[in-house]
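ok trying this again, last paste got cut off
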Amino acid sequence: MRLTALLLVLQFFLVLQVSSQVVTGTVVDRDSRLKLENVEVTNGTSKEKAITNAKGEFNIRAIPNQILIFNQPGYFSDTLFLINAKPIRKYMTLNNRFLNTVEIKAEAFNPEIQYADVYRKAQAIKLAKNQPFIFSPSRYFSREGKFARRFKRKLEREKTERKIDQRFNEKVVKTYTPLTGAELDYFMVLYRPTIKKLDRMNEEDMKFYLMAAYKEFKALPPEKKVSSSLKSNK
C-alpha cells in the first residue's frame, strides 16, 4: 500500500515536471518571411493557448509527442507534431481563397503586385481627383479588412527594411571597418540608419557615416560593444 502511494506521488511530480517544459518558437509567412503577430498557438492535448508577439515569437507549455495547432485569420490552419522541446520555426501559408492573393514569383520584393488583393482590401477609403469620396464600411470593419490592413503594414515595413538592407549590409560595413562576429552584429544594430537618413546619403556620405560610426563604436568600453543577448549566446 505504501509502495503504491509512493509510486503515485512520484508519478505526480514526474508529470508536473514534464508538463512544465516550455517550448518557444517563431511563426513566419512562408513566402514573404514576415514575422506573424497574433497567431494563436494551441496545445492540442492541454488546450493551453499562446499568442505570438510583434516578432512572431511565442512560448507555450508542451512536451514531445503533443501537437501544436496554429491559427491566424487569412492563413491556412496548420499543425506541428513535437519531436523534442527545441525552438520551433513555423511557416504559415496565406489562404488565397480568403484574400484572392495574386502571387508572382520574382527576385524583387514588390508587395503591391505580389499581394495586390491585400492592398485592395485594405483600402476602405478612396479619394480620386474629380471623383466622389468613397468609404466602404464592409472593408473597414470586417475581419477580412482588419487583417488586410494589418498585413499591409507588415509588408510596408518589410519593404522599407529591405531597401535599407540593399545599402547597409555586412558587405558594405566590412568594406570600411574591420569588424567581425558579435561586434559586427551589434554595430549593425546600433548604427542602422533610418530610410529617411539613408535617402539623404550618396555613396560618399555613406562611407563617411560608417567611418564616423566605427570611430564612435571603437571608443566604447568592451562591454558596450556586444549586446546582452549576443553575450549570452557566446
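PB: full thing came through this time. Confidence is low (pLDDT under 50) at residues 99-106, 229-234.
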